[in-house]
Amino acid sequence: MQQDLLRRLMQVATHERPARRVLKGGQVLNVFTGRLLDADVAIEEGIIAAVGPDYAGEEEIDCTGLTIIPGLIDAHLHIESAMVQPAELAKVLLPRGTTTLIADPHELANVSGEAAMDYLFGAAETCGLNVFVMAPSAVPASPFDRNGAGVIGASRLAAWKDRALGLGEVMCFPQVVAGDPAALDKLDAYAGRPIDGHAPGLRGPALQAYRLAGIQTEHEASDFAEGLEKLEAGFALLVREGSAAHNLEPLVTGLLKHRIPTGRCAFCTDDKHLADIFTQGHIDHCVRRAIELGMPFAQAVQMATIQPARIYGLNDLGAVAPGCRADLVLLENAARMTIRAVYKDGVPAAERLADAQAFPVPDSLLHTVKLPALTEEDLALYCAAETDAIQPVPRQLLTRRVRASVQRDGAGRFLPDARYCKLCAVQRHSGEKRLAVAPLEGFGIRGGALATTVAHDSHNIVAAGDNDADLLAAMRALAEAGGGYAIARGGEVHLLPLPVCGLVSLESGEAVARHTDEMLAIAREMGIPAGVDPFITLSFLSLPVIPAVRLLDGGLFDAENFRWIVQ
Question: How would you class 462 by CB atoms within 10 Å of its CB: exposed for 0-12, middle for 13-18, buried for 19 or more?
Answer without folding.
Answer: buried
